[in-house]
Amino acid sequence: MTTNSNQVRIFDTTLRDGEQSPGASMTLEEKLQIAEILDEMGVDIIEAGFPIASNGDFEAVSEIARNSKNSVIAGLARAIHADIDRCGDAVTHAKHGRIHTFVSTSPIHLKYQMNKTQEQVLEIVTDTVTRARNLIDDVEWSAMDATRTPLDYLCRCVEEAIRCGATTINLPDTVGYATPDEYKKMFEDIIERVPNSDQAIFSVHTHNDLGLAVANSLAGVAGGARQIECAVNGLGERAGNASLEEIVMAIRTRSDALPYTCQVDPKFLMRASKLVSGASGFAVQYNKAIVGKNAFAHESGIHQDGMLKNAETYEIMRPEDVGVKATSLVMGKHSGRHAFKDKLRELGYDLGDNALQEAFRRFKDLADRKKHVYDEDIEALVEDEIAIAGENTKVIALTVIAGTGGPQKAILTMDVNGKHETREATGDGPVDATFNAIKAICPHEATLQLYQVHAVTEGTDAQAEVSVRLEANGRISTGKGADTDTLVASARAYVSAMNKLALRQQGSNPGALQAV
Ligand code: KIV
Ligand code: ZN
């Protein structure tokens, strides 16, 4: 099973390892949207969460399991009966569910984290894999910190996990320490030495602490692994996991050197990246491979000259292969509702009547203010509209007095449960004044963790896309807002984050945030 096929399974852990990274937590709605696109793009296994972690995680894994069409839906479980049982319950409605259970195997983890001997951990492997296998046919077992585990002991653990019914064996480089050669050799050695290794699929799971995650994953595959655990935009603990889009495109682009196949359709990569970036609030760096804003941009004269003569002079992949559309001028202020609706459909949006009407109104408004309206502008506007649709607390109007010689002042009107409330507030700068005005209308304890602005397109009339992350009682939420006015976009992003936080804290309607 390990080496007789060159098909590599893509196991996406954006919603588990990715969501676990500080500040990246997502709402149920966001997780469902991400799972939907992963399923559609051909990801083999979606690790949807850690069901025992919270009721929210359990609900997310169960919902994703119910909705999945093609992908296997996995949940994570520590080597504890309660975790495994809860995970089994969460994935039970999937067409094809998986329990992924793990235990640490390295001496440093055994001594300081678990306070257990190697023999005791081996017993845990026997007990927990057997328990999982009694609940479901598809069981993955991971040896946490495998790359710092003595090979002899790792072999014993792997053999035991397979004997007890594990169908996938994952050997993570948990701390991102391995080099490609070492990682490849570990798989070769284990597969050769473990007598029943042919009864399981081996899996790589790499972290990017030394920037080697993708190289290590591909090296593990060269060593015999046939499953790659990775995350969209490389999201994950600390420096992140191997990036899904880089893995997929490396395999496709260099099939001469990497003779493997994977079934992910790369045309979805850009959309998935944007979705994950929006939900997590983690902006994609401009020079990020495959999905960065500059990944296909050619600035230098020599490069541009070459590109005009033959794109292959400097381009090893075509932008359209990964779902990047050439920046296109879409429409102007004379474009009608029909053309706007067609454009939305082309961009992959199908809005309900009310949202469409509001998006069209905002598009007209934007076209009045902005000389050129691009696809990216429409996308930012529609994403903003989708984010606020159904929210009971909204920004209606904002006037800010700014400049030298503060304090700066904001006069804000918001709709709170259908009632318009207006307040004035001052602050240390216009953004601070705006956020203070929001707090005056909706008093709350949340603290600002992140405030980020980026321009959607070029030029001083570009729309600003703002991300705001708030934290209250250990819970985090991220909101986004877009507008040609950076302060309006900031207010929208703040209110969106505040609404999500209210939903999370109260499990109820954001209208629970009362106007004073
Ligand atoms: O990095 C790691 O070891 C993990 C395991 C839980 C698979 O994420
Ligand atoms: Zn991990």
From TrEMBL:
One of its GO terms (biological process) is L-leucine biosynthetic process. It is an enzyme of class 2 (transferase). Pfam families: HCS_D2, HMGL-like, LeuA_dimer. Its cofactor is Mn(2+). Residues 394-516 are annotated as: Regulatory domain. It comes from the Bacteria. Pathway: Amino-acid biosynthesis; L-leucine biosynthesis; L-leucine from 3-methyl-2-oxobutanoate: step 1/4. Mn(2+) binds at D17, H205, H207, N241. InterPro entries: 2-IPM_HCS-like, 2-isopropylmalate_synth_dimer, AIPM/Hcit_synth_CS, Aldolase_TIM, LeuA/HCS_post-cat, LeuA_allosteric_dom_sf, LeuA_bact_synth, PYR_CT. Its EC number is 2.3.3.13. Coiled coil: none annotated. Keywords: Amino-acid biosynthesis, Branched-chain amino acid biosynthesis, Cytoplasm, Leucine biosynthesis, Manganese, Metal-binding, Transferase. One of its GO terms (molecular function) is acetyl-CoA C-acetyltransferase activity. GO terms for cellular component: cytosol. It catalyses: 3-methyl-2-oxobutanoate + acetyl-CoA + H2O = (2S)-2-isopropylmalate + CoA + H(+). Residues 8-270 form the Pyruvate carboxyltransferase domain. PROSITE patterns: AIPM_HOMOCIT_SYNTH_1 (PS00815), AIPM_HOMOCIT_SYNTH_2 (PS00816), PYR_CT (PS50991). Catalyzes the condensation of the acetyl group of acetyl-CoA with 3-methyl-2-oxobutanoate (2-ketoisovalerate) to form 3-carboxy-3-hydroxy-4-methylpentanoate (2-isopropylmalate). Belongs to the alpha-IPM synthase/homocitrate synthase family. LeuA type 1 subfamily. Homodimer. This is 2-isopropylmalate synthase. It comes from Roseibium hamelinense.
